[in-house]
Design goal:
By secondary structure, this protein is α+β, with helices and mostly antiparallel strands. It folds into two domains: 75 residues, Glutaredoxin (3-Layer(aba) Sandwich); 116 residues, Glutathione S-transferase Yfyf (Class Pi), Chain A, domain 2. Helices cover 51% and strands 6% of the residues. The chain contains seven helices and four strands, in the order βαβαββααααα. Strands 2-1-3-4 form a four-stranded mixed beta sheet. β3 and β4 form a beta hairpin. α4 runs parallel beside α6. The longest helix is centred in the middle third of the chain and has 29 residues. The structure holds glutathione.
Length: 203
């Protein structure tokens, strides 16, 4: 088994943090995104979408998409549970994981990809107005997240979950996007400090 990874990219880190929480070690192979190694014929044969992370099993089976890879490992090794236990918890973790990806990580990534000069070779065309258009969406969602965190320790409830992994990595990705969590979002700041203090956050 091998995980195609890219050390500085947010989506592969979602898998690395997930694996660290599970205590699972998988050999990593770095894909140099700056050198456009993911655009080569060889990598495209593995993942036609040309993105990392990608997991390749010993029999050659391929699983791309960070959350698909995490679900594979959750099924292989359920403990510690990170996608929830029981219908309600599973549903609420899924809801928050999707919100944190679609309403936070994705808009932050649009800001980064459409404004950072280093992304000009990978985001074609770069549309600076699209970066600007996403900024208020990020702030709005952080307000919603802050209000939710006022009454619980973790993103989806009382238990640390995959939603916390997505959320932590989204907030960390704000720095290269030249964004910051507003001072007023005290609950987001408290939660981010707590999840970042876990040993898995260093993965
Ligand atoms: N939805 C995918 C997103 C994967 C993705 O966008 N990966 C980025 C790195 S974080 C990538 O490979 N980018 C290649 C590029 O920018 O050309 C997932 O969750 O795995």
């Amino acid at each position: 088994m091998k995980l195609y990874d890219s050390a500085r990219a947010p989506n592969p880190r979602r898998v690395r943090v997930f694996l660290a929480e599970k205590g699972i070690t998988v050999p990593l192979e770095q894909v140099d995104l700056v050198a456009l190694a993911h655009k080569t014929e060889a990598f495209t044969a593995i993942n036609p979408i040309q993105r990392v992370p990608v997991l390749v099993l010993d029999d050659g089976a391929v699983i791309a998409e960070s959350m698909a890879i995490c679900r594979y490992f959750e099924a292989l090794q359920p403990e510690p549970v990170l996608f929830g236990r029981g219908a309600l918890e599973v549903g609420q973790i899924e809801m928050w994981n999707r919100w944190l990806e679609l309403q936070l990580l994705l808009p932050i990534s649009h800001v980064f990809r459409h404004s950072h000069p280093a992304m000009a070779t990978r985001e074609i065309p770069q549309v600076p107005a699209w970066a600007e258009a996403n900024k208020p969406r990020i702030e709005d969602f952080l307000g919603i997240f802050d209000r939710a965190l006022a009454s619980r320790p973790f993103a989806a409830g009382d238990r640390y979950s995959v939603a916390d992994i997505t959320g932590m990595i989204a907030v960390d990705f704000m720095k290269p996007a030249k964004l910051a969590v507003p001072e007023a979002c005290a609950h987001v700041r408290r939660w981010h400090a707590a999840v970042s203090a876990r040993p898995s956050a260093g993965a």
